[in-house]
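User: We ran a pulldown and think these components assemble together. Before we commit to crystallization trials, I'd like a predicted model of the whole complex to look at. Sequences follow.
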Amino acid sequence: NAGVTQTPKFQVLKTGQSMTLQCAQDMNHEYMSWYRQDPGMGLRLIHYSVGAGITDQGEVPNGYNVSRSTTEDFPLRLLSAAPSQTSVYFCASSYSTASGNEQYFGPGTRLTVT
Amino acid sequence: AQKVTQAQTEISVVEKEDVTLDCVYETRDTTYYLFWYKQPPSGELVFLIRRNSFDEQNEISGRYSWNFQKSTSSFNFTITASQVVDSAVYFCALFIRGGADGLTFGKGTHLIIQP
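Assistant: Here's a predicted model for the assembly, 229 residues in total across the polymer chains.
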């Protein structure tokens, strides 16, 4: 199993550009989520999905869109990048939310918006 | 709403010293899970432990041990005989059973082990 994979590992964008961060898992997990990590802030939840076709907002959703057309993939879209979105982005998955299963994290994407 | 507080922003100790990382949480739910993750300089998040709210037994894994006390809403992490490889940022996190809104993380403690 590859676990949770994220691409790209690094990305530099200019203000106003759009891009999609890719996330995939091969563990047949129902639950997937996106976090951002900023210095001194810990990780904060952006969006999450409890299954294909179902998504919802987390703590800091503004400026981001998600979709979940398959169990495996959960891409995060930045429609118009802003410098405030400079961060490290982690995708995570777990079997379900019912029993506090361990969340498996991807390696992260470091995004810089200039 | 739930909250996790890691009051120690940075701790620096000399190798072989014991060190305890504090974690205090807040939640109104009676069923929840607590986690510790390690983030080494390479940046990935490494799962260390999960503990549910009904199991207050302390746990030991090699040089690592965890002390869960519901009475003080704390889930502290101790490294015995620290090593340079333990240098990392450590995060405590809270998960509410059935809650779809993911993990609530503390802001992390940066642990520096000096040789």
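Residues 49 and 61 of chain B are 9 Å apart (CA to CA). That may be worth checking against your pulldown data before setting up trials.

User: Thanks, that helps.
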